[in-house]
Specification:
The protein has 146 residues and is of the alpha+beta class. The chain has one domain. The protein has four helices and eight strands. It has an eight-stranded antiparallel β-sheet with strand order 1-2-3-4-8-7-6-5. A hairpin with a 6-residue loop joins strand 7 (107-114) and strand 8.
């Protein structure tokens, strides 16, 4: 991977962290810039990428990574499928959108590529399967400036 996230397994490392302070130290080490507090988490950004850490009881509930890099997007998907043996549950293309859902034993990875015009945006969202049945997922719109 080429962005600040650097390693494809970092999404999994982040969601397994035990506290918000542990996440902040980790992202600071990667040189992500803290942008703002959201209703349910924190927004970090870097050139061409953004990271939303949704927090529940001081622990990460969901990690959303947005990038404009197709290789980084595909690298995470390939890692989930090949390295972690995630199974494809959804793989749909509708218009200018491609959505993939990959299920592991405990975690789910939602992948979305959207081509609204000249640029393509990629989004990866990692969360616990238990979160799918207990709480609603609030969509977040983040515009990347490149």
């Amino acid at each position: 991977m080429y962005g600040k996230l650097q390693q494809r397994q970092y999404l999994w490392d982040l969601i397994m962290m035990k506290s918000l302070s542990e996440i902040e130290v980790f992202l600071d080490r990667l040189s992500f810039d803290y942008k703002q507090q959201l209703d349910n988490g924190l927004l970090y950004s870097s050139l061409g990428e953004a990271l939303i850490v949704e927090i529940l009881n001081d622990k990460p509930r969901m990690i959303t990574y947005k990038t404009d890099s197709e290789p980084d997007y595909n690298d995470v998907i390939n890692y989930a499928k090949q390295g972690l043996q995630y199974k494809t549950r959804i793989d749909d293309r509708i218009g200018n959108e491609h959505v993939i859902r990959l299920d592991g034993e405990v975690l789910v990875l939602f992948c979305r590529a959207v081509n609204p015009s000249q640029t393509i945006g990629y989004s990866l969202r990692l969360l616990s399967k238990a979160s799918l049945t207990t709480t609603a997922i609030q969509p977040a719109v983040i515009i990347l400036s490149v």
